[in-house]
Amino acid sequence: MITVTEAVRLIGENILTLPITEVALTEANGAVLREPISADRDFPPFHRVSMDGIAIRFASFQTGEDTFRIEGVQLAGAPAQTLQQADNCLEVMTGAILPGNTDTVIRYEDLKIFERNGIRYAHIFAAPKGRMQNVHQCGSDRRASDLLIPAGTLLSPAEIAVIATVGKTTVQVSQPPRIAIISTGDELVEVSEMPLPHQIRQSNSYLLQAALQEQGVKAERFHLRDDKAALFAELKTLLSRFDALILSGGVSKGKADFIPEVLAELGVQKLFHEVAQRPGKPFWFGRVPDGPIVFALPGNPVSTFVCFYKYVRPWVRASLGAPAALVPKAILQEETVFRPNLTYFLPVKVAIGTSGMLTAKPIHIGGSGDFAALLSADGFLELPQKQSTFSAGEVYSFYGFRNII
Ligand SMILES: Nc1nc2c(c(=O)[nH]1)N[C@H]1C(S)=C(S)[C@@H](COP(=O)(O)OP(=O)(O)OC[C@H]3O[C@@H](n4cnc5c(N)ncnc54)[C@H](O)[C@@H]3O)O[C@H]1N2
Ligand code: MOO
Ligand SMILES: [Mg+2]
């Protein structure tokens, strides 16, 4: 049996190198960028008016002028006009290009427009502070050809907006790994079926599929019976078709727990079996040398859940080439005692305390088969192996499974 730290290390040594694929920008959110994105033009690409009002020449104001005849209107999206007479003005709108021969914008709030003899004037009553007031100057944010987004960035709406503005309709990203999710067990029937008294509907593969979907991976689901020959034949095919298999069930000590044996016969090299943790102790991990990775997770649903969030999710991110996710700490709210010499993943409900830190309230569950209890939880606190009493106020790593922050 190995420690949680050791398991994390061994998994970290078996990260996939995924090919690059080109996707539509509209499909790229959440993907990992595999090309650098540079500015095609200056940001902003022209002197951009940033307030609705009038544009003048500052020099005219400095000569004592405070009332300007309005020559016309410069709207956003219209080519630049040029002020004809130095002591006149043009009305300008936010987003418009600054008209030629002007260098200062005064907001409508700081002036009054009046009409005399059919001619419109703007009288300003708040002095402009200087040249280029209310002008977002060409190139002041970024310069053409500046690197904007390095390869390896996990794309969020902020990056999508910038990629759009540089004119890319498609973008190179990591191709998601091909993953097969395989539930095993003769007691399991499909969701659409009516289970007999000794059967249950299988849920783990749906849990895993949904959790992978959140990582941008569309995994295929399979179900296999507890039959050694069938497991051998089916897993053989799946190993040839996928980059990784995520199995659930059949890895403990039962008479029908054939998975470790069958994987060994198929040439999957065991990297570890059994991790000093609860839940999830019987976790098996291995790899076909230079080939697919196999996560064989314990079948109890809470164990499958914990192993996914602690081990599989970070592995998917690393394989995609994304930086590791931040693991926040949360303040334990109630004393918790756990004596076995194992790391304990405690289901908790989190909130934000008065200090702004996450607080974690333990959720009591009826063992690792009680996955309905997770409906009240937000994630797990990792309580270290070396300790057995965990006092209220102590701070531990939190692995969340809800989009709440
Ligand atoms: N003698 C021992 N027995 C067990 C040990 C042990 O150390 N010694 N470990 C226990 C622990 S801890 C766990 S966790 C389970 C792991 O069992 P397996 O990985 O072999 O999984 P199964 O036996 O196939 O199933 C366990 C349990 O989970 C249910 N299950 C399985 N797959 C699904 C699914 N897709 N959806 C919903 N539920 C599923 C299954 O029906 C069983 O109830 O072993 C303990 N035993
Ligand atoms: O560790 Mo098992 O994973 O308790 O249910
Ligand atoms: Mg079993």
Break the fold down into its secondary structure elements and pairings.
Layout (H helix, E strand, L loop, with lengths): L3 H9 L7 E5 L12 E2 L9 E2 L3 E4 L1 H5 L4 E8 L13 E5 L11 E4 L3 E6 L2 E6 L10 E2 L10 E3 L7 H9 L4 E5 L4 E6 L3 E2 L10 E2 L2 H10 L6 E5 L3 H14 L2 E5 L10 H7 L3 E5 L3 E2 L5 E4 L5 E5 L3 H20 L8 E4 L3 E2 L5 E10 L5 E5 L16 E5 L5 E2 L4 E6 L5
Parallel strand pairs: 5-6, 13-16, 13-17, 14-15, 17-21, 19-24, 22-25
Antiparallel strand pairs: 1-12, 2-11, 3-10, 4-6, 4-7, 5-9, 8-9, 18-20, 20-21, 22-28, 23-27, 24-25, 24-26, 26-28
Helix pairs in contact: 1-7, 4-7, 5-6
The site of ligand LQZAQKY5 has 27 residues, from helix 4 and helix 7.
Enzyme class: transferase
EC number: 2.10.1.1
Pathway: Cofactor biosynthesis; molybdopterin biosynthesis
